[in-house]
Amino acid sequence: MHLSGHCICPSDPQFVEEKGIRAEDLVIGALESAFQECDEVIGRELEASGQVGGCTALVAVSLQGKLYVANAGDSRAILVRRDEVRPLSSEFTPETERQRIQQLAFVYPELLAGEFTRLEFPRRLKGDDLGQKVLFRDHHMSGWGYKCVEKSDLKYPLIHGQGRQARLLGTLAVSRGLGDHQLRVLDTDIQLKPFLLSVPQVTVLDVDQLELQEEDVVVMATDGLWDVLSNEQVARLVRSFLPGNREDPHRFSELAKMLIHSTQGKDGSPTGEGQVSYDDVSVFVIPLHSHGQGSSGH
C-alpha cells in the first residue's frame, strides 16, 4: 500500500493527484474490503457447518499516527478526553438507513415477495384506513407527503417501529453486520441478507494532532451498554474512575468491568440510576496516551 511515503499507484500519478487520493484512503479501502471478505468467509463456513447466525462488528486500527474506526451495526466507539466527548462511529439501524433499504425494495420489489410494503407510515394501517389520507415516506423522500390509503398499503411495512423497537422485515434491529446469510422472515422464504450491508463506515481520528493526556481513552462497546448509558454518562464514569486509580496497572480493564456493572441495575451502580441492560454487553477501554508519542511506535 506504499504507506511509508512512496508514491501511491506510480502507474497513474495524475489520477491520484486529481482525485486527491491519500494513504489513509487506502487503509479505509482495505478495511472495507476486509469486512466484505470476512462476511463471505463466514457465509461459507456457516453453510458448510449447517449453522446460522450473525453479528455486528466494530474495529479500531492504530496505524501511523491515526486511529481508524470501522463500524457495521449498532455497536459504538467514543473518544473521551478531559474536556471532550467525540463519537467515532454511527449506528446502522433500519431507521438510520431507511432510504437505502427502501431504494433496494424499489429496484428489486421481488425481495418483498408481495408480503411487505416498502412505504413508511406513522403507524400500522388497518382496513378502516382505506381511502383515508395519511402521511407517508418513500425511498426518494427525506420529508413527508400525503397519500390515500390503498389495499397494498395494508401489508406489513418493510421497516416497522421506532427507536430501539424498529425492525427490518419484522425481524432485525440492525441494517449492517456480518453473517445471517440463511436468515429468513418467520414462516416465509423471504431473505434478509440482501438488505444487510457488511461494508463498514470508517472514521479517521488524527491522533498525532491531539495533545493527549494520560486519561484520554477510546471506549468501544456493544449496544447493551449504550441502551442504558449515554455518551456523556460514560464519559463522566471514565473521568471519575481513572484519576483515582493511576497506580493500578489494570485500571483500564477495571474501568471496562465497572462500565458493564453499571448496566446491571445493581445496588451501588456508579450511575445511581439502577438502569438494566438485557442485551449482551462487551466493553473495551483503550488508552491513547502511549500511542501519541510519535507515529514510529504504531
From TrEMBL:
<protein>
    <submittedName>
        <fullName>Protein phosphatase, Mg2+/Mn2+ dependent 1M</fullName>
    </submittedName>
</protein>
<dbReference type="InterPro" id="IPR015655">
    <property type="entry name" value="PP2C"/>
</dbReference>
<dbReference type="InterPro" id="IPR001932">
    <property type="entry name" value="PPM-type_phosphatase-like_dom"/>
</dbReference>
<dbReference type="Pfam" id="PF00481">
    <property type="entry name" value="PP2C"/>
</dbReference>
<dbReference type="InterPro" id="IPR036457">
    <property type="entry name" value="PPM-type-like_dom_sf"/>
</dbReference>
<dbReference type="GO" id="GO:0004722">
    <property type="term" value="F:protein serine/threonine phosphatase activity"/>
</dbReference>
<feature type="domain" description="PPM-type phosphatase">
    <location>
        <begin position="1"/>
        <end position="288"/>
    </location>
</feature>
